[in-house]
Amino acid sequence: MFRKISRTDLLVDALIAIAVVGPLAFIDVVITYRGQVGLFLSVWPVILAFLLAGMLTVRRLAPVPVLLMAFLVSAVHVLVLAEGIYASWFAVLLLLATVGRFATTKLEFRLTAGVVVLAAALVTLWSTGALLGLGSLPAGSDIFLSVLFAFLPSVLLFTGAVLAGVVLRLFMRSNREARERRKAEMSVLAQMQMRAAEEERTAIARDMHDVVAHSLAVVVAQANGARYATDAAVKDDTLATISKTASGALVDVRGLLHQLRHSQANDVSNGLCDVPDLVERMRGAGMDIRLTMPPHGIQLARASELAAYRVVQEALTNAMRHGAVGAPVFVRVDVGHELIVNVHNRPAQYGGDRVPSGSHGLTGMRERAALAGGSSWIGIDQGWFRVLVRMPVALQT
């Protein structure tokens, strides 16, 4: 029955109480002084005004107790004084609306229902003139008319005040829930945007790693070989390979920068048809690569094609950096019910079945396969370091 409210709310309620009670209390004063009244009745409207203003000020602190107090004051005013009832009953209406706004328990609503019935009965008694010391009881027909035209309308009026408070509570609750829902939606949207931005940064970092690591590995291998080459033609071929590899890396980096500037730019990344050129560049760096490719002209999902190319590129880069020198690297790409990329070579540095799980390249291959809707397996298989990726074909129409 008792609530906590802020000082600001208390001040607002005090101003509302003054605005409501002031004009109506003035009417009560005028009505009282027009009649022949004693000393008590002459000061009673002022006392009543202060009481009602105080009760309306604390109405949200204790809605039901304040309502009961206001009803008792109004009952005394009607039964004993029978003059100027405007301020007291208007205060009761406002308090009934407050109870409907804040009451939560069955006891509070039961007490409020009792107040509604008793208040309607008092209004009926006053309206028919059957007040203490003010005439005789009405006849049967007058009672029927009193119930019909005074009691029932009063019940409806007071009940309407309670229902107005209930409707206001539901409206405020709906608005609060809507604000909380919008806040939650905005929070989810912000998290999705952050996640999308993080995924975009990860994708760009992965692409940059694939491009730069592969190209630098080829350039370093070619440069080291050129240092020991005595044939001028071999040196020229080596320098041409270095230039071609560096130029290709520059084009790829420019493409990544273009994607950074234009998020909706078309994807001009490589596909399966570019794998033979990739293999030739790696062969130019001194690698022995045995390539098996499916027939040309097979249409695949773009994501699967790009993932297959990047997996082959990263697997060959790993073979160049960590594989046994001079050992062949087997690259096989098959297309059937699914796209299968199988790259394996003899490792030079890995011991047993241990695979460096923190490698950016290996993580990138796994992520690319997952993004394309496929699966990957990377590890040591009977003495071979194997990269096995399976992805959906998803033929384009």
Annotate the secondary structure layout.
Layout: H1 7-34, H2 39-57, H3 63-81, H4 86-102, H5 106-128, H6 140-228, H7 232-261, H8 275-284, E1 289-292, H9 302-322, E2 329-335, E3 338-345, H10 360-371, E4 375-381, E5 384-392
Parallel strand pairs: 1-2
Antiparallel strand pairs: 2-3, 3-5, 4-5
Catalytic activity: ATP + protein L-histidine = ADP + protein N-phospho-L-histidine
GO molecular function: ATP binding; phosphorelay sensor kinase activity; protein dimerization activity
Domain Signal transduction histidine kinase subgroup 3 dimerisation and phosphoacceptor: 200-264
Helical stretch count?
10
Secondary structure class reads alpha+beta
Order of helices and strands: HHHHHHHHEHEEHEE
User: Distance between the terminal alpha carbons, to the nearest Å?
Assistant: 69 Å
Gross geometry: rod-shaped
Estimate the helix proportion, in percent.
Answer: 55-70%
How many strand elements? 5
Biggest sheet, open or closed, and with what strands and sense? 5 strands, mixed
Q: Kindly provide the radius of gyration, computed on alpha-carbon positions and rounded to a whole number of angstroms.
A: 44 Å
Low-confidence stretches: 130-136, 264-268
- Average per-residue pLDDT, rounded, comes to 79
- Order of strands, main sheet, comes to 1-2-3-5-4
Q: Strand percentage, roughly?
A: 5-15%
Protein name: histidine kinase
GO cellular component, one term: membrane
Keywords: ATP-binding, Kinase, Membrane, Nucleotide-binding, Phosphoprotein, Transferase, Transmembrane, Transmembrane helix, Two-component regulatory system
EC number: 2.7.13.3
